[in-house]
Amino acid sequence: MTLKQRVGKAIPLILLTILTIPVIVGYIWILISTFSQRTYGLIPVDHDGNFGGLTFENWSFLWNDPNIWNVTLNTLNLAVLLTVGVVLISAMAGYALSRISFPGRKVFLGGTLILHAFPSVTLLIAIYFVLRELGKIPVLGKGLPFIGGIGYNTVGGVALVMVALQLPLGIWLMKGFFDNVSWDMERAALIDGCSRLRVWWEIMLPSIKPGIAALSIFTFIGGWGAFLIPYTYIVDQEKSTISAYLRGLQGDTAPVNYSQIAAVGLFQLIPVLIFFIFTQEYLLSIFGGGRKGGT
Amino acid sequence: MAVSTSQVGRPAEPKTTVRDVLRRMSSPLLFMSPAVLLTTVFFFVPVIILFRISLTNMTTATGLKNYEMVGFENYLTILSHPNTRSNLLTTVKYVVFTLCFFNVGMALVMALLSTHVPRRAGFVYRALWLLPRLTPSVIYIMMWKYIGANPPYGILNRHILGPLGVAPADLISTQPFLFVVLTNGLIGASFGMIVFTSAIESIPQDYMIAALVDGCTLWQRIRHVILPMISWPLLFVTTYQTLSLLTSFEQIMLLTDGAHNTEVWALWAYHRALNNYWGNFQWGFGSALAMLLVAIGIVMSIIYMRFFRFDVLVQEPKIEAL
Questions:
Q1: Predicted structure pTM score
Q2: Which residues contact A97 (CB under 8 A, 6 or more apart)?
Q3: Which of A49, A122, A258, B141 has the fewest CB atoms within 10 Å, i.e. the most exposed one?
């Protein structure tokens, strides 16, 4: 390998590094800040402004505040419900839109695209009334264990709203992935008398695992970090999510303890990072597999 | 191949009974019904409710019962409102800058760069770019406020501008638009990056090897192999991100709350209808503002569909007759 080739290989890496610096600076500060009394720029200082002041005090919310575990469970609930709902429903609709001819198919595809134009801010007002109506349904409305129900002021209701709002994204993504799967295996299975449902479950879904993983990542992240919708539709503090809890920490009139909020933020970030790294490995390895039928 | 098998396999079907139709429609019904149901309940019904509210003078003062239908009065108010012009301009600037430089531009650059370095390194960089999206917005915006804060706290002032001799300032209030685009752009770029990366990695190796054997330069490979193969994801990301930028306001709300001339249209509607310091929520006026956003979104998505030859991309399925 000549020098020129080496330089050519290094250029993308150098560019990547330069472009990425602005992204990570804030996180370096968060890491330092959560273990410091306060910070000047990226330098940890104590209350007098001298270098030092390292502390674990900011993490005391973990054992001092019983609410944190409550809201963590709610957030996990919401994120899992959302992910399962979005992936399942968009994989079904995406398959039909990609492979089955039926009246209204084009309309629905174009409509899905346009649906996202509905600004969620406007829907916030109107969906409030819809959720109140759903809440009036006996049992299903607000009597379900664990998720509360599907009405106003329940985790299930918020999850349902968020599933609906994320469907345009999910359906389009899934349709795009289904379009790229070869027709041969599916055709063979259908000729052999396989039902559409079975083809979808046993042949198509395994073929688009990378797409499912990609959609799951985005949906789970969306649910785990969601702020505006849970904040709007869940009024009871014990039912709320971590983001709303964080907002509460800042909402007090007392001087804001940024180091402590950063610690809660890092706490919220850790499970997502683990989840993401795990799935990304899976995503990368799946491309090496020999599942392609013959494009 | 483009000929559908229904035309070939069933040239003359004497009569179509109701049972036949039901049997043929059963699988699309099964697959589509959950999506159709949710879309109806949480998109169409709310939009009808919204449109109705936009024709009323409903506010906190009138309550949910004692309002009156006022026709298109709210829309006329928007036309003559002193803030309309500046908020519209802010919105257009915000969408165009963020989309070009970050949500599509930077996303494509990151996807191309990170797929042309060793796999492990590409993974690390993509993971880092996903961080802004993973981060709860409250924390993320707090980070940016700290980056732009006054000395001795702010990172930019302390470590870059200070040593360069630039006068210290609260950068969020002196450069609000720059920070609005940066905060939203760094979040938005990761979406396109992931989608483009998946698409680039799905391109069969044969094409790349063939291009390499033919002696293609890097630019030729990008222009003639990669870009045509990822046209669907490009369409999707451009369209989706335009509309999502048009309606997004959460980060701006947390960063400036619309101060310093950063009140985008969606935030304006939100402030009027759900959150303002007068405490008198103008549901009617806010809904009218929002309905206009819906209209703009529909027009823009139709333009995009034409531009990307949507009709070609949604070609009819080939095996529907089986």
A1: 0.77
A2: A105, A108, A109, A171, A175
A3: A49
Q: What's the rounded Cα separation, in Å, for the pair B247 and B295?
A: 12
Residue A233 contacts residue A160 (beta carbons within 8 Å): no
Candidates B128, B270, B286; nearest CB to A24: B128
Instruction: Out of A117, A160, A246, name the one closest to residue B298 (CB).
Output: A117
Q: What is the full DSSP assignment across A8-51?
A: HHHHHHHHHHHHHHHHHHHHHHHHHHHTBSEEETTEEE-TTS-B
How many beta-carbon pairs under 8 angstroms link A with B? 305
Q: Give yes or no for B44 touching A (CB within 8 A).
A: no
Q: Hey, what amino acid is at A221?
A: I
CA distances from A184 to A99, B132, B224 (A): 13, 41, 27
Contact B204/A39, CB-based, under 8 Å?
no
* Interface probe with B: pick from A6, A13, A14, A16, most Cβ of B within 10 Å: A16
Encode chain B (322 residues) as per-residue pLDDT tens digits: 444 444 444 445 556 677 777 777 788 888 999 999 999 998 888 888 888 989 999 888 887 778 888 989 999 999 999 999 999 999 999 999 999 999 999 999 999 998 888 888 888 888 788 778 777 787 788 888 888 887 777 888 888 888 888 888 888 888 999 999 999 999 889 888 887 888 888 888 888 888 888 888 888 888 888 888 888 788 778 877 887 888 888 889 888 888 888 999 988 988 888 777 677 788 889 889 988 887 777 777 677 666 655 555 555 565 554 4
Task: Name the minimum distance, in Å, from the CA of A146 to any CA of chain B.
Answer: 22
Q: Which CATH class is domain B86-263+296-313?
A: mainly alpha
Contact with chain A for residue B46, Cβ under 8 A: yes
CB A210 within 8 A of CB A129: no
What is the longest distance spanned by two Cα atoms in chain B? 87
Which amino acid, A247? R
Which positions in chain B touch A22 (Cβ < 8 Å)?
182, 186
Rama region for B261: left / alpha / beta (φ>0; ψ in -120 to 50; rest) = left
Cα dihedral B42, B45, B47, B50, rounded to 10, equals: -110
Residues of A with CB below 8 A from B204's CB? Answer: 292, 295
- Domain boundaries, given as residue ranges, for chain A: 64-251+275-286
List chain B residues with CB under 8 Å of A33. Answer: 146
Q: Which of A102, A196, A227 sits opposite B250 (nearest CB)?
A: A227
Q: Which CATH number fits domain A64-251+275-286: 1.10.1740.10, 1.10.3720.10, 1.20.970.10, 3.30.300.20?
A: 1.10.3720.10
Pick among A39, A125, A261 to test the B interface (most B CBs inside 10 A): A125
Q: Which of B136, B157, B274 sits opposite A125 (nearest CB)?
A: B274
**Amino acid found at A228:** L
pLDDT tens digits along B83-112: 999 999 999 999 999 999 999 999 999 999
